[in-house]
Design a protein that fits this description.
Elements: E1 5-10, E2 25-28, E3 39-40, E4 46-54, H1 56-59, E5 66-74, E6 80-88, E7 95-100, E8 107-118, E9 125-133, E10 140-143, E11 152-155, E12 158-161, E13 169-170, E14 172-177, E15 186-193, E16 198-199, E17 204-213, E18 219-228, E19 234-242, E20 247-255, E21 262-272, E22 283-290, E23 299-304, H2 312-327, E24 331-336, H3 348-352, E25 368-371, E26 386-387, H4 391-402, E27 408-416, E28 422-431, H5 435-438, E29 443-450, E30 453-454, E31 467-468, E32 471-475, E33 482-483, E34 490-498, E35 508-515, E36 527-534, E37 551-557, E38 563-564, E39 571-579, E40 584-591
């Protein structure tokens, strides 16, 4: 076996306020003791509350221990009073215990609860704080990883989940004490690929391993041991001291010469130290794969443009110039009328997709674009959205997007009735096994777009003949896609729609793409492949690959995935049909009109 190459990288130390001399203790929270760089607020006079959910999975190893204190991280204290930290089982439920912070300070504030709370690891808890303000104060701090349950905020008791609007989780934590809390604990925090865990044979996979001191006693020296499948283990000794919450990073370069096509080869890493009292968190594994075949990719270009944008016609010329240079059959384009104000073509979905620009305080702009909803360093942005400039910068970005291999296909079929204006779409997809290593929960998205829409008043263009192209009109799936119910390595998904009377059906196209979605991470919503179909190319009468097959079973599910009964259910349901050849077809339908 080729010897694994490695390099070491030190991680910055997180500073931590001290905990009193009690039983062994640990601090729990998702922000990892960090403070944000931007303060968040709730406008107006009143009592403001902020909280996050601490999951029972994270609490599991502390079952029976006692929550003794709450820690609150603040960006400022000017203009706030009556600060109180608390713990609840639910945002609308009673406070289990709380502590008043009489003299709050910028940074971390810690206060012991009046009686303490015994952890019941079968239940989630909410950790938070409340204060009074006369007017808006940007004192709320958010940091660390994004989570869908990481930041709730309320004014006078009316709660909202604002997790998508903030970069990280609420800077609040609990102190847990008890005889079952280890005094010495080295844990392996994460083992993740740098870039991708799927490469062509002969390429190198970089794996980042992060260890952390998870207990109060300092760790003086420790070891990493890593092993590829059944190969020989390699041990690396680290001669450094980790104080509580300090981290260390090891990067391992895994060569893949001679692998061929391999799906899911296991790479295991352990971090150990003498005297570790909690050893079930020392080891993690990552699956590594190589491929020898891939499918042809079409890049999804999403453009942000409006009639209010004077520079957008220039960006349209940039796109047209590049496409005419041999790229037209390699891309699928969708224009969202958002980013710089809104116009008469803007839809709710266009506004929703502004999430890809970043945090609200970062703002939006046009002309802008996304290639496969994927961030790339050439974009000069930390998010998938980039500014569309001129062909000499735009074309290299497109080349990078096209160079990414894809392991899934998408093929839309459609039928359109000109009399009823009813559209039926059937999307066939197939994947290679390695696709599951990249995206275990892939989604299908289906958009309708329209070309040649006469502008009402396009800024930056003096002619009255300007027409908009590939305008987003409607999403027949969730805007971020519907989960695919695979039957082996293939699936067929059906959609129906009635085109509005003011649409020109001859200019309408179906755009289908396979993607992933993570509501907590803008950079984890990649599009893997896309395709489009013009209704002008569709003949009347359903074009389908399943007309010769019969249905073996039909099931209905609500949008949360629970099975429902057609006789009693009312609302939008998902119909799942298993055909005679084993193919599974899913379709959204309205029950109980």
């Amino acid at each position: 076996m080729n010897k694994l190459k490695l390099r070491l990288a030190a991680c910055a130390v997180m500073l931590l306020a001290s905990v009193g001399a009690h039983a062994a203790s640990v601090i729990l929270g998702y922000c990892e003791g960090a403070l944000g760089t931007t303060g968040y607020s709730k406008t107006g006079k009143g009592t403001i509350s902020a909280a996050f959910l601490l999951s029972k999975e994270m609490l599991a190893e502390y079952d029976g221990a006692t929550i003794t204190a709450v820690r609150i991280g603040l960006m400022t204290t000017d203009g706030i009073s009556q600060l109180r930290g608390w713990v609840k089982y639910g945002l609308e439920e009673a406070v289990l215990d709380s502590v008043a912070v009489d003299a709050p300070a910028e940074g971390w504030n810690e206060g012991r609860l009046s009686t303490g709370i015994t952890i019941d690891a079968s239940r989630d808890i909410y950790v938070g704080y409340s204060f009074y303000q006369e007017k808006s104060v940007k004192c709320i701090s958010v940091a660390g990883p994004d989570r869908s349950d990481g930041y709730f905020v309320a004014k006078n008791g009316s709660w909202q989940n604002r997790s998508k609007d903030a970069e990280g989780t609420l800077c609040a934590e609990i102190v847990v004490e008890g005889p079952n809390i280890p005094a010495k604990d080295l844990r392996l925090l994460s083992v993740e690929p740098i870039g991708t865990n799927v490469v062509a044979p002969g390429e190198t996979i970089s794996v980042r391993c992060i260890a952390q001191n998870a207990a109060q006693e300092s760790i003086k020296g420790f070891k990493y041991t890593y092993q590829l499948a059944d190969g020989e283990p390699t041990t690396v000794s680290i001669n450094r001291t980790l104080d509580y919450r300090d981290r260390d990073t090891l990067v391992v370069e895994v060569p893949t010469e001679g692998w061929g096509a391999v799906v899911g080869r296991e790479f295991t890493v352990s971090a150990t130290t003498d005297g570790d009292q909690q050893t079930d968190n020392n080891t993690l594994a990552l699956r590594l794969s190589t491929y020898t075949e891939s499918y042809q990719r079409k890049v999804l270009l999403e453009e942000f443009t409006t009639e209010n944008c004077p520079n957008c016609p220039r960006a349209i010329e940039t796109i047209a110039t590049v496409l005419a240079n041999g790229y037209e059959d390699k891309t699928v384009a969708v224009a969202h009328h958002s980013g710089y104000k809104y116009d008469w073509l803007t839809t709710d979905a266009d506004e929703t997709l502004e999430w890809f620009y970043g945090e609200p305080e970062d703002g939006t702009f046009a002309p802008a674009g996304m290639f496969d909803r994927t961030q790339n360093d050439l974009f000069r942005a930390k998010v998938p959205v980039f500014s569309i400039a001129y062909p000499d910068t735009y074309q290299p970005m497109l080349d990078v997007a096209l160079s990414v291999p894809t392991f899934v296909t998408v093929e839309p079929h459609a039928a359109y009735d000109e009399v009823t204006r009813q559209l039926r779409v059937s999307v066939d997809t197939k994947k290679m096994d390695v696709m599951d290593e990249i995206c275990p929960a892939s989604r299908i998205a289906l958009y309708l777009i329209e070309d040649s829409i006469l502008a009402k008043s396009q800024a930056g263009y003096s002619s009255t003949t300007f027409r908009h192209s590939h305008v987003f009109r409607q999403s027949l799936s969730d805007v971020y896609g519907d989960l695919i119910a695979w039957s082996g390595n293939s699936a067929t998904i059906d959609f129906t729609a009635t085109l509005p009377s003011d649409w020109d059906a001859s200019q309408v196209k179906v755009v289908a793409f396979v993607c992933e979605y993570d509501s907590t991470n803008r950079n984890a919503c990649r599009v893997f492949n896309s395709e489009q179909l013009s209704l002008s190319d569709v003949v009347a009468g359903i074009e389908t690959t399943s007309s010769h097959r019969t249905a073996k079973s039909v099931s209905l599910y609500d949008l949360s995935g629970r099975k429902v009964d057609a006789d009693s259910f009312r609302g939008i349901a998902i119909r799942r049909t298993v055909l005679s050849d084993g193919t599974v077809s899913t379709e959204k339908t309205l029950i109980g009109r």
